[in-house]
Amino acid sequence: MDFVFPWALLLLPLPWLVRGLFPEAPPSVAVALRVPFFSLLQHSEGPRQGRRWRIRALLPLLAWACLVTAGAQPRWLGDETLLPTTGRDLLLVIDISGSMRAMDFGTERDPKSRLDIVKEVDG
To answer: pTM for the full model?
Structure first.
């Protein structure tokens, strides 16, 4: 396996650097939603504790790692595999309703229906 842009992998620790270099935002005084039982919710699990918080922190980091790896454009270096190019399976769907009997194709001497024209093209 090889990468087109291996230097892009240097961006992997960027979230940890940003978190370490910049302080956390102070808690805001303005409240967007007033919850009367907020103190019960706040003490139920505690900040940054529990298994659920670890999973919530892991998913964005995993997404970041996938994004950076995709940006490095991995490619597989191995034996070349030739794909068969013998043909394709095609399916032709033809309308056989009454409107296909209209004689609006061909010449004045030899009028043809729409279905006849489709059969000639298919043949």
So the answer is: 0.47
Residues 32-50 have a mean pLDDT of 65
Give the integer Cα–Cα distance in Å for 71 and 8. Answer: 7
Report CA Rg, the chain: 33
Sign of CA dihedral 38, 39, 41, 46: positive
Indicate the angle between helix axes 14-21 and 51-71, nearest 10 degrees. 120
Query: Which residue from 106, 107, 55 is spatially nearest to 115, judged by alpha carbons?
Result: 106
- For the CA atoms of 9, 11, 17, 21, the dihedral, rounded to the nearest 10 degrees, stands at 150
| Residue 82 three-state SS | coil
Using a pLDDT cut of 70, give the percent of the chain over it. Answer: 84
Structure tokens at 73: 């454009």
CB 115 within 8 A of CB 96: yes
The mean per-residue pLDDT over the stretch 86-111 comes to 84
